[in-house]
Amino acid sequence: MRNRALFSVLAGAALLPALATPALGSDRQYDDGWDAATYQARLDPVPHHPKADSGSDVNGHAELVEVDGELKVEVEAWGLSPLLPHLMHIHGELEAENECPGPRFRAGGVDDRLIETADGLPAYGPILVTFSAEGDTSADSGLALDRAPVADEDGTLSYQRVLLDVPDDVLDELDDLHIVIHGEDLDDDGTYDAEPITALGAPLEAELPVACGELDEVDADADDHDEDDHGKKDHGKKDHGRNGGHGHRHG
Ligand SMILES: [Cu+2]
Hints:
Strand content: 15-25%
Distance between the termini: 45 Å
Number of helices: 5
Number of domains: 1
Number of strands: 9
Radius of gyration: 18 Å
CATH architecture: Sandwich
Structural class: alpha+beta
Bound molecules: copper (II) ion
CATH topology: Immunoglobulin-like
Order of helices and strands: HEEEEHEEHEHEEH
Oligomer: single chain
CATH superfamily: Superoxide dismutase, copper/zinc binding domain
Largest sheet: 9 strands, antiparallel
């Protein structure tokens, strides 16, 4: 597999937060038996310099429902490069505050006007889960373009899959994590150019982040859909006393 070296980089990046948070395992005693937990994210365009990103303007939304360790994922996005695969991931640093990268993350990499994946890592953290169309969904598949979901001819992507192998510590922290969609055909030639190669070890066009959204838990007790915006009040239930409420900066 020609991308083996890249996968090693990704796997290493994913491993770091795990090593840095050895105490996490003690918080897992309540993993099983919880009711469904629902998380939503609004996906907004990554703020590249507008003269460098070929007018990329990707928007979308995602809903994740966790039931007994399984994660049902639905993502809708539009404005993507048509008929090309788009890598999608859950990104984040476990036990850390994460955010979608702002314009100041443009600097670095092969183009100082673009927020390449490596440029954005300090903001949204490493890949934790891959929304692949089939097969493995771990960080190991982070650059598996051949299994990435493909946008239709209008640049719309609809993704639905139930993920069975999401690590428990990721499930526990979904509320602090992000979804990132990648891939922009910058020169609109209908394909991802093989070069330049970015610090991630992948072709720029294939790996360029184009949309990002922060996951927030939706109130599990709210039967009324109009109440979605009030979901914050139940965060304590899912956190179950861990770390006294880190990271809920939105509240
Ligand atoms: Cu990603």
